[in-house]
Amino acid sequence: MELQAIKTDRLYVKVAAQLSKLVSDGVILPGDRLPSERELAEKLNVSRPTIREAMIALELSGIVEIRTGSGIYVNEKKPFIATEDKGIGPFDILQIRSIIESQACALAVEHITDEQIKQLKDTIVEMEEEEKRPDSSEKADWKFHSIIAEATQNSAITSVVNWLWELRGKSDLSAAFAQRLRAEGVHPSIQDHKDIVDALEKRNAKQAEQAMKKHLENATEAAATYFDNDPFSKIKL
After folding, report:
1. What global pTM score does this model have?
2. DSSP characters for the chain?
3. Cα(52)–Cα(40) distance, rounded to whole angstroms?
4. Do 211 and 195 contact (CB within 8 A), yes or no?
5. What pLDDT is stored for residue 229 in this prediction?
6. Largest CA distance in the chain
7. Rounded CA gap, 224 and 233, in Å?
8. Contact 89/43 with Cβ under 8 angstroms?
9. Rounded distance, CA 173 to CA 59, Å?
10. How far apart are CA 222 and CA 181, in angstroms?
11. In the chain, N or C terminus with fewer CB closer than 10 Å?
């Protein structure tokens, strides 16, 4: 008897499969522009980040094309495999990072050393240099956040923060989206990182927490602009 593993689809996979079926059934035709992110979220009763991640999955599958500032357009009647899991989405990762790293930054205030403050400042310089390279990988950004995690002196926090960065690289969905954002010229905010270091250097836990939270919220907002489109569409779901 041959058995197959049971797969639990992520929510964005289910959304992508439903939209793909509308394309294959001819409800949405090649060349059509999809409804806005807000409208899709309301009609499908899911969050806007879930819609964004579904769009990334459909783009990776070649079903849609995301045109920044214009909208999301259907390419062709190509099937999307509903059980295909392309990994954790970038917006899910950003959300959990905001929850964990904001608190970690506040905790780091209690233990961070002058040497680690210097390392953070040096890493910001590295980030500025990375931005100038076409093959920017954001390794310096990862290093920055890892130093703060280590400053908490909590090995569980350090492991989780680094795992979330590794997860982004292992997820086809998140890795492809990060690469696309870099190609569009979207990079981590240098000023946000400087604000975080300033709060840590002052040993101000509340300011440090808020600076990290603001940084990750800004990162989420910058990523979301990639999906900006016309809020009006003739397509009805």
Report:
1. 0.80
2. ----------HHHHHHHHHHHHHHTTSS-TTPBPPPHHHHHHHHT--HHHHHHHHHHHHHTTSEEEETTTEEEE-------TT----S-HHHHHHHHHHHHHHHHHHHTTT--HHHHHHHHHHHHHHHHHHTSTT---HHHHHHHHHHHHHTT-HHHHHHHHHHHHHHHH-HHHHHHHHHHHHTT----HHHHHHHHHHHHTT-HHHHHHHHHHHHHHHHHHHHGGG---S--S---
3. 10
4. yes
5. 53
6. 65
7. 19
8. no
9. 10
10. 9
11. N
Q: Kindly give, in sequence order, each residue whose CB lies less than 8 Å from that of residue 127, ignoring residues fewer than 6 positions away.
A: 138, 140, 141, 144, 187, 188, 190, 193
Burial class (CB in 10 A: 0-12, 13-18, 19+), 227: middle
Task: Look up residue 40 and give its amino acid.
Answer: L
74 φ/ψ angles, rounded to the nearest 5 degrees: -80, 135
Q: Give me Rg for the CA atoms of the chain.
A: 20
* Res 236: pLDDT: 47
Q: Torsion angle of alpha carbons 51, 93, 67, 28, nearest 10°?
A: -20
Q: Distances from the Cα of 156 to the Cαs of 10, 152, 208, in angstroms?
A: 26, 10, 20
Which tens digit of pLDDT belongs to each residue from 6-40? 455 688 988 998 898 888 888 888 899 998 888 99
The number of angstroms, rounded, from the C-alpha of 35 to the middle of its chain's C-alpha atoms is: 22
The token duo for 150 is 């280590």
- 212-235 pLDDT, tens per residue? 999 999 999 888 887 765 443 444
